[in-house]
Design goal:
Elements (H helix, E strand, L loop, with lengths): L5 H4 L2 E2 L4 E2 L3 E3 L12 H14 L4 E7 L20 H13 L4 E5 L12 E2 L13 E2 L2 H20 L4 E6 L4 H6 L14 H4 L1 H14 L4 E9 L8 H14 L3 E6 L19 H7 L7 E3 L6 H9 L5 E4 L1 H5 L3 H6 L17 H5 L28 E5 L3 H12 L3 E5 L9 H4 L8 H14 L3 E3 L6 H6 L4 E4 L3 E3 L12 E3 H6 L7 E5 L3 H11 L10 H8 L24 E5 L15 H10 L3 E3 L3 E6 L2 E6 L2 E5 L3 E4 L3 E3 L4 H6 L4 E3 L11 H14 L1
Parallel strand pairs: 3-4, 3-12, 4-5, 5-8, 6-7, 8-9, 9-10, 10-11, 11-12, 13-14, 13-16, 14-15, 16-27, 18-25, 19-20, 19-25, 20-21
Antiparallel strand pairs: 1-2, 17-26, 22-23, 23-24
Length: 677
Amino acid sequence: MTKTYPKMLEPLDLGFTTLRNRVLMGSMHTGLEEAKDGFRKMAAYYGGRAAGGVGLIVTGGIAPDVFGKVQPFAAKLTNKKEVGDHQIITSAVHENGGKICMQILHAGRYAYSPLQVAPSRIKAPINRFTPLPLPNLGVQLTIRNYVRCAKLAQEANYDGVEVMGSEGYLINQFITTHTNKRQDKWGGSYQQRIQFPVEIVKGIREAVGPNFIIIYRLSMLDLVEKGSTWEEIVELAKAIEQAGATIINTGIGWHEARIPTIATMVPRAAFTFVTEKLKGSVSIPLCTTNRINTPEVAEKVLSEGHADMISMARPLLADADFVKKAEEGRADEINTCIGCNQACLDHAFAGKRATCLVNPRACYETEIRYDKAKTAKKVAVIGAGPAGLAAATVAAERGHQVDLYEAEGEIGGQFNLAKKIPGKEEFYETLRYFTKMINKYGVSLHLNHRVTAEEMVAGKYDEVIMATGVKPRLPQFPGVDHEKVISYQDLLRNERQLGKSVAVIGAGGIGFDVAEYLTTDLEHSPSLDINLFLKEWGIDKNLNARGGIQGVKPEPPEAIRDVYLCQRKTTKHGQGLGKTTGWIHRSTLKHKKVHMLGGVSYRKVDDEGLHITQEDGDHVLKVDHVVLCSGQLSVRDLEESMKKANLSVHVIGGADVAAEIDAKRAIRQGTIVAGSI
């Protein structure tokens, strides 16, 4: 059935210009800003999103001076020589009918550089460097640098700028007493502390004139102690409007806040209530954000009056044609962002080029292409996990005749296990997308079909892509075959009912997932219930608490089981988890009082339980069950016989490398192999 999204697709009149719809592509640093030939690649990246129908695009953060750069070689716009590079981007966007604003971001004490500056000499908990406090003249110079940067952006043909005033960067640092201890005109009372952002916006408006978009990214929920009160936020919003802003965008949480705001375990649209509360306090459009990843969610938020616009960054990384597909009644073809952070934010914070787990072409538009094949080939893909699904659908999209074989009764592979983990329900969306692509591009799907090498030879396939995945590694100790012991695959696939006390062997990503699964009431997962989520993390929905959290005690749901998460290593549990999400998983299990045991040797399992040895001696964990999450082995039994038959074989995904299960690598491998044959 065709669905329409009238609110999301409604034009927005800004007075001097009109946006074609209510979708803003939120700012995200990609790493292309500093890459060789990066501006040409960014032109393809942003140009593709403009062609995909986005109403307004905001670039990744660009520093207004050398002190504001997030790292020593990060992008800046400080002189006319740099204008020409930016014109490559703006031209591509305008040629595709879009509008684009450049975000001006001064990192302040978040700059990973010894040259960092801030309102006061207070070190950030997420940075090794301590900032130098800006002198009075330095503050005034920084304001002028913002204005100069905006004027240069105008010369580069940007339609406007976004002033980054949230997430704990420099402007945020001036606003709160958490980071501003100054006694001069830029510190002290709230009215004095907010003069810094007000003077920036006022100066930019005077320099660029009336017909230039100024978005101000306002931190509406700091999520740090000594953050702003709601009354202060409203006061700042009014002052920013008076200073000349066109749109106020919502910022949620400082980077140092220990509360998840955009990861997959955060409920969809969890923070739009904050923007809704500001409605009516100002007359300019308000944009809301965070975990809005489908047109249905966007439409609901807008139709219920929570905001005038929707900001989506990662969903447009996942699918450049998000808006166009929604507009054309093809929402079921949208490749939905699953909020994993593995290829976007984790890459950005590690200094790598950002991309997307479900869309490896993101930020690689000029390098990974799905050109039509010159010669259509007959292709067999063995295994319908993430790697095989990517390979089969891309190959078929390019015009190849594709047979996709799967030994189980459904597509998905390890995703069918992952989707059952509380907080990972978005994996259902990825499987929905691949199902649609299989049908759209005419992939012949053969379920419950375990192939043989002879069958591949008889089928006269030009190419065979082996995506046969992994199987659990079975540890070797007495009692591993005891009735108490089950594998994680058996637990999740068959939804086995376990006792009230469970030991999990292996504390990698799968071990953490299993521990989450075992301790959560699956009918009341906080990732699906905004109120439960807010209670778990101690967020005041009424916004009476300073910073949204001060004095609020977190109320995590009680664990439904007693779980021991065991590992042989003596290092921190979950050390190999994602850079931006690992701390969340550790905190969640800490809330559930999961016992983290390290340096464990496994002696045996018997009726009494799991017998282990640690540094302090032997112990018995008197558990009802033991779940094995002790690694995987590649399944590639057919490879040798197929190669002996002179078949052209490509091994991808877990069949290639079975270390920690890695969907990012699997989907990328499948995409690249399919794009090359």
